[in-house]
Amino acid sequence: MVDEGLFRFVRSSLPEPPARVLEVGAGAGELAAALAGGGYDVVAVDPEGSGDVRPVALLDLDEPEGSFDAAVAVVSLHHVEPLDESCAHLARLLRPGSRLVVDEFDMAAFDERAAAWRLEQSGDHEHDAAEQVAHMRGHLHSLARVRAALEPFFALSEPVRGPYLYRWGLGPEYRASELELIVAGALPPTGARFSGVRR
Known about the structure:
Blueprint: H1 4-13, E1 20-24, H2 30-37, E2 41-45, E3 53-54, E4 68-74, H3 83-93, E5 94-105, H4 112-122, H5 129-139, H6 143-150, E6 154-156, E7 160-162, H7 175-183, E8 191-198
Parallel strand pairs: 1-2, 1-4, 2-3, 4-5
Antiparallel strand pairs: 5-8, 6-8, 7-8
Helix pairs in contact: 4-5
């Protein structure tokens, strides 16, 4: 099921259908299916894709240059390797003036407070918060690193920060409590959304 707030953000940032949209890191394809149902021509890719999601890494996607009107990357770019080359390839696939829509998990903001809260909510008493933070920061790209890889090719908006942890194996019923703790300064905002325009 696609998060309603996420879908509104993505849809409001895209050109009108039937624009051709590339989804990077599409997972099981729920968002791609929702966009296709709204009239978009969607190509969804994921290294572990199946069904309507092509099982291919971004860097290996063989499509003509400038063949997409927009691209969407939902919690995927922090995993992409090699990051710089993949972002350059993404830029080549988009025509000048097209829109990039990004929803990310900010690794640098994910601290022990965030890890401990998420582990507690999920009932996970086996993992240590500090170890989880160190592990994830050790192999995933930070938001700053992702933006640095995109900036040579895209004019990027400032990120809008907000809750993300509720989407990581918890559920929408946890969003309000996470947001309340963020507002109170007890949790960092680990989610970030921004868009870009292909130069």
